[in-house]
Design goal:
By secondary structure, the protein is α/β, with parallel strands linked by helices. It has two domains: 3-274, Spore Coat Polysaccharide Biosynthesis Protein SpsA, Chain A, CATH 3.90.550.10; 302-425, 3 Solenoid (UDP N-Acetylglucosamine Acyltransferase, domain 1). Helices cover 23% and strands 27% of the residues. It has eleven helices and 31 strands. The chain has a seven-stranded mixed beta sheet, sandwiched between helices. Strands 16-19-22-25-30-29-28 form a seven-stranded mixed beta sheet. A five-stranded parallel beta sheet has the order 15-18-21-24-27, with no helix packed on it. It starts with 6 loop residues before the first strand and ends in a 6-residue tail after the last strand.
């Protein structure tokens, strides 16, 4: 049987996504919109498709309705292929009466579904990372070394290192030590010479740690053994990987491309705005590794008497007499005359309003979906279907780091203004 037929991927949907609140208020973390027209989960799924890994389960338990809808509407393989992308939501069974307790526990609870496929290799991925990887190289390393587990690792600087699992390897690439999010002296003890991995002396001095990317390949029978070894092992980084190092063969695969963990508001904001750079860290224009998403049949964007600099415009937008700079503008966005939008991510809308609906909104004193005339917005994330009125000033001129607006109409996190999905910001509001 071909190796690809013995392989399956599991994409971990994450927990409640509290660090991405309020973007995760009504959706799971993998379903959060990204880059104007994508969802976070599209990155991992696209990497799989581009690597000829065509059988995938996405594990989730929080707010999974929009993720279910996106997966169902987007990923449909040929009737002549056995490829699929399916949601496995947490379910209570006589054997597992509780919800997923961690990354490893999530996989443990769905083993009965995975085991039905007769696989010998399981690829475990995260649904909220931004990177482009050909998993065939990762899998080749796993097979060549005959490892029980292979962990994808990336050189890291000192500032970031303490947020990840760090490891040390021997000359053969076998992992001999692993510490989850070490601090202080424990962090210093995990320093390694990354010139041995091909980094220049200058780059190695800047990135002297090896961080786990939270991406693993397991021999399936060994994974079953590890998960059965201790029911208290609920997390891969904290429990399973250290346990596997003690009792099995764990190898490292070094990835030296761009990789971003976008699990916080700041990281999410920066990752989106970086797409507007001349040479972005994550390349959406790579013909060799396209990012797939739901096909929508939208008209081209219509732009009238506007000034747009260093920005991304998605399909179906109507931009009239606006000034937009360093911003990502999502599907079906409507931006009115005199609007200044700077350093912001506007996610757009799920639908177009009819003329009658707009008149009804006006009669009810509601702004229509989009941004009203004369409004100025800087350093903001505007979620889908938000209604922002005319002549509002959303600039956070006082430099407030964290705040909750009245009635949930807006939030400020790390100095970034966030307008939640379906929220209403009235005419003349100052934030």
């Amino acid at each position: 049987m071909p190796a690809s037929r013995k392989l399956l991927a599991v994409i971990l949907g994450g927990g409640a996504g509290t660090r991405l609140f309020p973007l995760t208020q009504q959706r799971s973390k993998p379903a959060v919109p990204f880059g104007g027209k994508y969802r976070l989960v599209d990155v991992a799924i696209s990497n799989c498709i581009n690597s000829d890994v065509l059988r995938m389960f996405v594990l989730t338990q929080y707010n999974s309705a929009s993720l279910n809808r996106h997966i169902a509407q987007t990923y449909r393989f040929s009737h002549f292929s056995d490829g699929f992308v399916e949601i496995l939501a947490a379910e209570q069974t006589p054997e597992s009466p509780q919800w997923f307790q961690g990354t490893a526990d999530a996989v443990r609870q769905v083993l009965p579904h995975i085991g039905d496929w007769g696989i010998d290799t399981l690829l475990i991925l995260s649904g909220d990372h931004l990177y482009s990887m050909d998993y065939r190289e990762f899998l080749a390393r796993h097979y060549e070394s005959d490892a029980d587990v292979t962990v994808s690792v990336i050189p890291s600087d000192q500032i970031s290192a303490s947020e990840f699992g760090l490891l040390k390897t021997d000359q053969t690439g076998r992992i001999i030590e692993f510490k989850e999010k070490p601090k202080g002296r424990e962090l210093e003890s995990m320093l390694v010479d990354t010139t041995t991995l091909g980094l220049s002396v200058e780059e190695a001095s800047r990135r002297p740690f090896l961080a786990s990317m939270g991406i693993y390949v397991f021999k399936y029978d060994r994974l079953e053994q590890f998960l059965a070894q201790d029911p208290e092992w609920v997390d891969f980084g904290r429990d399973v990987i250290p346990g596997a190092i003690r009792s099995g063969k764990v190898q490292a695969f070094v990835f030296n491309g761009y990789w971003g963990d976008i699990g916080t508001i700041t990281a999410f904001y920066r990752a989106n705005l970086d797409l507007t750079s001349k040479i972005p860290k994550f390349n959406l224009f790579d013909a060799e590794a396209p990012v797939y998403t739901r096909a929508r049949y939208l008209p081209p964007s219509k732009i009238e008497q506007s000034e747009i600099q260093d920005s991304i415009m998605s399909e179906g937008c109507i931009i009239d007499g606006s000034r937009i700079s360093n911003s990502v503008v999502g599907l079906r966005s409507r931006i009115s005359k005199g609007v200044h939008l700077d350093a912001s991510f506007m996610m757009g809308a799920d639908y177009y309003q009819t003329i009658e609906e707009m008149h009804a909104d006006l009669a009810a004193g509601l702004p229509r979906v989009g941004i009203g005339e004369g409004t100025i917005i800087k350093k903001a994330i505007i979620d889908k279907n938000a209604r922002i009125g005319s002549n509002a000033r959303m600039l956070n001129e006082e430099g407030i780091q964290n705040a909750d607006g009245e009635g949930g109409s807006f939030y400020i996190r790390d100095g970034i203004i966030i307008v939640p999905k379906n929220a209403v910001v009235r005419d003349g509001t100052v934030i």
